[in-house]
Amino acid sequence: MSELKLLSVVSEIYPLVKTGGLADVAGALPAALKAQGVAVRTLVPGYPAVMAALGAREEAFYFDHLFGAPARLYAATAAGLDLFVIDAPHLYDRPGGPYTGTDGRDYVDNAQRFAALGAVASGIGLGLVPGFVPDVVHAHDWQAGLAPAYLHYASGRRPGTVMSIHNIAFQGQFPASVAPLLGLPAHAFSMGGIEYYGTVGYLKAGLQLADRITTVSPGYAAEILQPEAGMGLEGLLNQRRGVLSGILNGLDAAAWDPAADSLLPSPFDAKRLDARAANKAALQARFGLPQEPDTLLFGVVSRLSWQKGLDLLMDGLGTLIDIGAQLVVLGSGDPQLTERYAGSARVNPGRVGVQFGYDEELAHLIQAGSDALLVPSRFEPCGLTQLAALRYGALPVVARVGGLADTVIDVNEMARASGVGTGVQFSPVTVPALQNALTRTHALWQDKTLWRTLQRNAMATDVSWDRAARAYAELFRNLARERAA
Ligand code: ADP
To answer: pTM value?
Structure first.
């Protein structure tokens, strides 16, 4: 098997910079792909956190002019990742997040910031760095969406291109006035190119012009062909469904290993489930809840947003209280939802505990200490929290959508009879259905032997990256072969 060279293009990567699951995927795939004979280099913007983390670095190219000022491209390593980093202080050296400033608003020049990412990716694809000429360029989400477009409109031999959708809700849409700034031919601003309902669409461009399209679960791949989930792109996706596929994400097995998790008071595994109890007690103490081993404890680790359906949990909280359960929530995001959750903790002391902000250690403790993890998402491309929950024996209670439906086996009568259930699914994504799921979970909780079986089933689920990496590697190889022919 000859080695395939892959350029991964992404706007965030764990552990350097992360706002969501995208970073986890970008950070974990390179190692998993390496085992499949794919050599990955990842192109990322040189945000302050990235520049600070670089180990040995080498200038790979100098740009006299990259969207407004000179810039450098470095080949570097950081946190075990092989990177190309765009050192363009005028675009990336600012306080705040990767997409928004300290005021929480999108940067006004995001169109230029991520056009630069796409343009540099295209340059590397065309041989800018002689030591690494990729066979395939893999663009993640709208921020990398112009990479396939630049390559499409370039002349000469180009690598294969793959556009991956991690969340179709984020589309990177900019006013038409951006089009002339991009350095693409004028005819690129058309329906068959980067134009999107009269605007410039970065994700649309990638979906239109990449050789292949993937998304992060088979379920979501089917859903985005429908208007409810396609969010305006369903027409294009239906035209291109022949090159669209869904590949389920895995979980970083080293970062999420209950038997060797240094963030836990009491590491455990499927054979030592008793050791889990100390984590539950620590979690209850952390949130000021009574340390009752027999009380069913639900956990939430999530962005607080409409997508995640956490308003439904607030609306249905009465049921959780009525069945005598406890709830701990770690989340950040929407200020109104934050206020509602803070209020529910005030009204239900000893029953509901909340913490706002981003906290990796607490996320691990919630997975290890809660009995069930709630994920009532309205839509979920793949979802990583339920994968961690499976691995940590917190039974996922999930909406039957997208990747949640693909990864959790509902404990219905059939699943119970054949001993394969791993969690609870509910549908439709409504308050009554969620309440019903809470009640069902509570009924399962009464049978401690059954609960243990379900926990062991959950923990035995293959959530590794190997499976996903095999599927990606096959797709990349087929594409590279096709381009070579
Ligand atoms: P999304 O990418 O839509 O936010 P995912 O479930 O795919 O959702 O990925 C979320 C990732 O972020 C998981 O690794 C989860 O553990 C983590 N996470 C989400 N919210 C928090 C938080 N408040 N603190 C720590 N980790 C969080």
So the answer is: 0.92
